[in-house]
């Protein structure tokens, strides 16, 4: 339901938006279920997914730029 609102709804690449959702879920797992963390999975994510933060930053800046023009 929350996917209808905010920046998520404005991300044109829905597979990337879904990837961001998975990142948030993983973050929640790290914080709240840290005793169940799979170390090899954490290593894999660090090695392969960090570029998503740069992509997300670009989406946020684009969103803010368009919001200021209104």
Notes on the structure:
With 70 residues, the protein is mainly alpha-helical. It has one domain (11-69). Helices cover 70% and strands 0% of the residues. It has three helices and no strands. The chain starts with 13 loop residues before the first helix and ends with a helix.
Give the helix/strand layout:
Layout: H1 14-32, H2 39-49, H3 51-69
How far apart are the termini? Answer: 25 Å
Q: How many helices in DSSP terms?
A: 3
Task: Estimate the helix proportion, in percent.
Answer: over 70%
The largest sheet, given as strand count, sense and whether it forms a barrel, is: none
- SSE succession: HHH
Q: What is the overall silhouette?
A: elongated
Average pLDDT rating: 82
How many domains, as an integer?
1
Report the sheet-strand fraction. Answer: under 5%
Derived from helix and strand composition plus strand pairing, the structural class reads mainly alpha
**Measured on Cα atoms, how large is the radius of gyration?**
14 Å
Q: How many strand elements?
A: 0
Which ranges are low-confidence, i.e. pLDDT below 50, for 5 or more consecutive residues?
none
InterPro entries: HepT-like (IPR008201), HepT-like_sf (IPR037038), Type_VII_TA_RNase (IPR052379)
GO molecular function: hydrolase activity; RNA nuclease activity
Family: Belongs to the HepT RNase toxin family.
Protein name: DUF86 domain-containing protein
Supply database-style keywords.
70 residues; 0% strand; 3 helices; mainly alpha
């Amino acid at each position: 339901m929350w996917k209808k609102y905010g920046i998520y709804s404005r991300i044109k690449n829905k597979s990337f938006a879904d990837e961001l959702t998975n990142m948030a879920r993983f973050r929640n797992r790290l914080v709240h279920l840290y005793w169940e963390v799979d170390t090899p999975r954490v290593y894999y994510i660090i090695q392969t997914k960090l570029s998503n933060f740069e992509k997300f930053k670009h989406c946020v800046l684009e969103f803010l730029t368009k919001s200021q023009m209104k």
